[in-house]
Amino acid sequence: METTKEPTPPEAMTHRAAGDARRHALVRAAFEIIAERGFEGLRTREVAARAGVNIATLHYYFMSKEALIDGVADYLAEQFATLHAPLEYTGDPTPLDLLRQEFADAQFYAAHYPSMYEVTHEMAVRADRDPTIRNVLERLERSWNRSVEDILRDGVADGTFRADLDVVAATTILTCFQRGARYLVTSDLDFDRACAELEHWLLAQ
Amino acid sequence: METTKEPTPPEAMTHRAAGDARRHALVRAAFEIIAERGFEGLRTREVAARAGVNIATLHYYFMSKEALIDGVADYLAEQFATLHAPLEYTGDPTPLDLLRQEFADAQFYAAHYPSMYEVTHEMAVRADRDPTIRNVLERLERSWNRSVEDILRDGVADGTFRADLDVVAATTILTCFQRGARYLVTSDLDFDRACAELEHWLLAQ
DNA sequence: TTCGTTTTCAATCAAGTGATTGACAAATAG
DNA sequence: CTATTTGTCAATCACTTGATTGAAAACGAA
């Protein structure tokens, strides 16, 4: 049932660094399994096997399955903070540039890191019952909301967006729209077209 | 481990009808457990116990756990088709009435049947891996999309909504927005405010 | 080298877990 | 009234699953 041994052999590595690598390999393995088969299909044995270690070793690094899952949640938040679509503007971005970048990020994740959305879905469902995960996800949502709100506020101030825009409401609409779009059906083409229309609704005149 | 026996005693009931009732009780029990603890916490034993029957009886009605879950998916679709918020208009509804009814439905489910959304989330996550469930959910989405699109098209035709509205894009925006709003954070107040702003964006002038 | 600390694993536990079996009762057909 | 189908359950199977144990390496400080 073994798969890939640890990709970074602990050869030229301090003892401590090797431990960190093992910890990370376990989280990463759990992340992948959750993406593939959900929490429903998450088994500690398989996580350990993918990371190339014994179950007991998994329990050495993570007290319980729950602790491991919490580790995955943190890893997910870190991924969202780190990974972004390549910038589509040069120099100082206008509010419209930033709005488009927002949409581009969503497509970038869907195209290149679909597992991030898959795991986020799983986490969102679990958040109803697990306060630790709810915390991580709420923090993530809040920071995303804030950045969208800032873009809109700046855009209204400099005349890019409609002067009568309800910035808070528009932020809700944009974030809910993006959350809902990464769901089951919406095609890339539909998403593009919807983004263009949203832009049209937001722009002044 | 027993809970409620079947609420409709098979006294004055034909054999066939009693069978249907048992079948329904099993689906309903599974539905509730999925809402409470997700697929992760769904155990055939507990489903049987809640429906007041033996595990073997569950397996008499549903070949496998999967078949039971498919039954829950069908039940969910049926619920969405059946349950609606009380009508907020009298007589012949205008496109604006229908749009508002659309928003009212979303709040109605969230307020009175939250388990419908909880189970839908679980199903959506599972749909990635289960073609039968994907089918049910896609049918549901399509029919919802169609009805929103019809409202918008009528509204553009009669001058309620902006003449330059991209109906297809707007439909995507509205459905994605509503899907995304029934997620984790958005409060009733935020939802109301966002709906008002959306209405403002759609209306002519 | 020595000794305590950190890390790893084979073996095992106890509690599930979906599914089956075979017997038995209740309803219905002939 | 039989004979057959339909519905039900206690008991059990074969296997899974999260977690633990106790011993043995690997390591680093003294």
Give structural attributes.
homodimer; about 200 residues; mainly alpha; about 70% helix; DNA-binding
Describe this entry's structure for a reader.
The structure is a homodimer of 205-residue chains. The first copy, chain A, has helices spanning 15-37, 44-51, 55-61, 65-82, 95-112, 114-127, 131-157, 167-181, 188-202. By secondary structure, chain A is mainly alpha-helical. Chain A starts with 14 loop residues before the first helix and ends with a helix. The model of chain A is unreliable at 1-12 (pLDDT under 50). The interface between A and B is large, with 43 and 43 residues. The structure holds a DNA duplex (30 and 30 nucleotides).
Architecture blueprint of SSEs:
2 copies of one chain form a homodimer.
Chain A: H1 15-37, H2 44-51, H3 55-61, H4 65-82, H5 95-112, H6 114-127, H7 131-157, H8 167-181, H9 188-202
Helix pairs in contact in A: 1-2, 1-4, 1-6, 4-6, 4-7, 5-6, 5-7, 6-7, 7-8
Chain B binds a DNA duplex (30 and 30 nucleotides) through residues 14-16, 18-19, 22, 43-45, 53-57, 59-61, 64-65.
Summarize the structure.
With 205 residues, chain A is mainly alpha-helical.
Largest interface: A-B, 43 and 43 residues
Beta-strand content estimate of chain A? under 5%
Model regions low in confidence, pLDDT < 50 over at least 5 residues of chain A: 1-12
Number of helices of chain A: 9
The string of secondary-structure elements of chain A, in order, is: HHHHHHHHH
Q: From the alpha carbons, calculate the radius of gyration of chain A and give it in angstroms.
A: 20 Å
Principal-axis shape of chain A equals elongated
Structural class of chain A: mainly alpha
What is the number of beta strands of chain A? 0
Distance between the termini of chain A: 62 Å
Q: Please give the share of residues in helix of chain A.
A: over 70%
Tell me, rounded to a whole number, the average pLDDT of chain A: 90
Q: Oligomerization state of this entry? A: homodimer
**Sheet with most strands of chain A:** none
